[in-house]
Amino acid sequence: MMMDSVSRLLVVILVGVSYVVQTMALNCVYSNRRCSCDPSVTFVTCNDLDQIPPLNTGGNVTEVTSLTFQGGNITSITRSSLPLGLTQITIIGNPLTNISDDALDATAATLQYVYIEGAEFSNLPKALKKVTNLTQLSIVDTAIQDWDIATLKKLGATV
User: Coil, strand, or helix at residue 131?
Assistant: First the structure.
């Protein structure tokens, strides 16, 4: 009798955990098993991706404030690949060669922090010129050879 009660309890717990995990996956802005969202969907972390997955549609896309791409083979960031209204983006250990000029348009007024490490682009991304509230910019272990003066002047007003 005791064993039946324990078995039922375990089934209930497993069903509950399964529901929570599925709900969290459905609410994440990227439907990729290598991306995880905190329960409030405010922080998103993606590990070892070959490219940025398509954004899920829905209201919670605008709730993301912090996005991290750690490790992998992401080479490009294009328009519509990032959630609206980000305040922080961190890209570490991806051979990023291109950030399109319009990649940050949806976050231009909200983005405050950009950290890029180990990228392979040689020009300062012009997309940064459109960011109006950036207070911290770190580009580490990236051999930038063309420091666009117009972009630096624009960034200098807030960084």
Answer: coil
d(CA 69, CA 53): 11
pTM (two decimals) = 0.80
Residue-wise pLDDT tens digits, 73-98: 999 999 989 998 899 999 999 999 99
Domains of the chain: 2-156 (3.80.10.10)
Asked whether the CA dihedral 33, 70, 45, 50 is positive or negative, the reply is negative
**What token pair was written down for 127?**
């997309």
Q: Cα–Cα distances in Å, from 58 out to 20, 28, 63, 103? A: 19, 10, 10, 20
Q: How many helices (H) and strands (E) are present in the chain, helices listed first?
A: 2, 8
In sequence order, the β-bridge partners of residue 91 are 69, 116
Burial bucket for residue 143 (CB in 10 Å: 0-12, 13-18, 19+):
exposed
